[in-house]
Fold:
Amino acid sequence: MAERFVNLRVRRQDGADRPETRRWEEFRVPYQPHMNVISALMEVQKAPKTTDGKTVAPVVWECVCLEEVCGSCTMLVNGKVRQSCSAMVDQIAPNGETITLEPMSKFPVVRDLMVDRQRMFEDMKRVKAWIHLDGTHELGPGPRESPEKQEERYPLSRWLPYDC
Ligand code: FES
Structure:
């Protein structure tokens, strides 16, 4: 069976104050079942070389939770804003189509796919976009988990297909 690859077209920029360095670079990495965009970027990270054979600086992006919670991995995937940790290669490029990755356009670029989201955090502070806990609410002990369920679930919480 022919080896399958994941093709990425990545918008690069060498720094926040380097807009003149904006460019596209293309990468091809070996396909693995259940890959997401982050794991494909990690493959690029191992040996950052473009499809035309040029060795380049590793692509910069952010990820933290890998479970679609923190939002740090958000970028444009094929032109749509989405969290790249839940962007599955099998769904967005089932036949080896090229996946285009760009930084979000509403935030200043820090480097490559990483943006400065400080403005959003400042806005959240300004409108107090959180649930205020002042200690007067009885929170209770939380849901109980049986030891059997703990044994079953803990190994699952530790499983990560790729290093992050
Ligand atoms: S890494 Fe947290 S949402 Fe993707």
